[in-house]
Design a protein that fits this description.
With 319 residues, the chain is mainly alpha-helical. It is built from 15 helices and 2 strands. It has a two-stranded antiparallel ribbon. Helix 1 runs antiparallel to helix 2, helix 8 runs antiparallel to helix 10 and helix 8 packs across helix 12.
Length: 319
């Protein structure tokens, strides 16, 4: 979980201890993912390295108490010079603020200086869903040319959960033998980001895909063990799913944006296009904020405008 560069960080012992306590707090109480913790630690370590050069000495808690908005602006400027873009800078600032707010709750620093900095603007990129027809092809086990039929059925079952239930890869791979959606299953209880729990409906096609996988799988998933298994019987990793999707999209001539996560985007976009309301889609996706879900309205609007430009006779501009 730790940053490989952390041994190179020049910081006083009290700051290094505080970083460790903060990460433990985020992991145990906030239940952030390992990936998020690694990113947060890396961002804070980069900031501490900057302060070592900026202050001409290793930073301790006393130095953190004396920080001013200009110090944070200097850090962001130095990161920009290395090519960091707005999204990276905003994430880095969020991690640093989280660390300082944690210290503030302990009465060790005042986090007001970091809060005074406006996050860098970042380009808003729209999700890139695949079409309904392409999504249905991607989740069809017959579309894969895997040597082992059970592997093709397994991959199809995972992808069907992403498109049919709007799950993230991590959520699909966290299912166990006991929680597997089988014939007759009407809903699925999922634990998503931040430990937020939600209930999603399960379509019969999802149950069929999982049943096909279980029927062909040479291993028997244990009730408390992972539902989806690798070729050697161990837990299936997300990278294997990503590689299977890459192979499928090349065979089908789909763009690089056709990733496993794009199926979750497709789930939301196709529901919205079919008349689903944003609040319901928010709950199904497990978004903490409605504003996160609202981006799909922009995707739907963009698709409508594109269809209009391609099909309406009066949309054609003179040459």
């Amino acid at each position: 979980m730790s940053d490989p560069d952390s041994l190179l960080v020049s910081a006083k012992a009290d700051v290094n201890a505080a970083v460790g306590d903060w990460l433990d707090h985020l992991g145990s109480e906030r239940r952030l993912s390992d990936r998020t913790l690694v990113a947060y630690e890396r961002d804070v370590r980069q900031f501490l390295r900057f302060l070592t050069n900026h202050l001409a000495e290793p930073p301790g808690l006393e130095a953190l108490r004396e920080l001013r908005p200009a110090d944070f602006r200097g850090f962001l400027a130095s990161r920009r010079q290395t090519g960091a873009e707005g999204r990276t800078l905003a994430r880095g600032l969020a991690g640093i603020r989280s660390f300082l707010r944690y210290l503030e709750t302990l009465g060790q620093v005042n986090a007001a200086a970091s809060a005074a900095i406006r996050p860098p603007r970042q380009k808003r990129s729209l999700p890139k869903p695949v079409s309904a027809g392409d999504a249905m092809t991607l989740v069809d086990a017959d579309a894969a040319d895997d040597a082992e039929p059970w592997v093709a059925a397994r991959n199809a079952a995972v992808l069907t959960l992403l498109y049919g239930c709007g799950l993230r890869i991590s959520e699909a791979l966290s299912l166990t033998g006991r929680t597997a959606p089988r014939h007759g299953t009407r809903s699925l209880r999922v634990v998503g980001k931040g430990g937020r729990e939600r209930v999603v409906p399960v379509l019969p096609i999802v149950c069929d895909a999982v049943e096909d996988y279980l029927r062909l799988c040479p291993y028997v998933p244990q009730p408390e063990g992972p539902l989806f298994l690798g070729v050697r019987g161990g837990p299936l990793g997300p990278r294997i799913v990503q590689l299977a999707m890459a192979k499928l999209r090349r065979a089908l001539g789909l763009p690089e944006s056709a990733t496993p996560h794009a199926l979750r985007h497709s789930f939301a976009t196709h529901l919205l296009a079919g008349g689903g309301d944003l609040r319901t889609i928010q709950e199904l996706l497990g978004h903490a904020s409605l504003s996160t879900t609202q981006i799909y309205t922009e995707v739907d609007a963009a698709r409508l405008l594109d269809a209009y430009d391609r099909a309406h006779p009066r949309s054609r501009r003179p040459a």
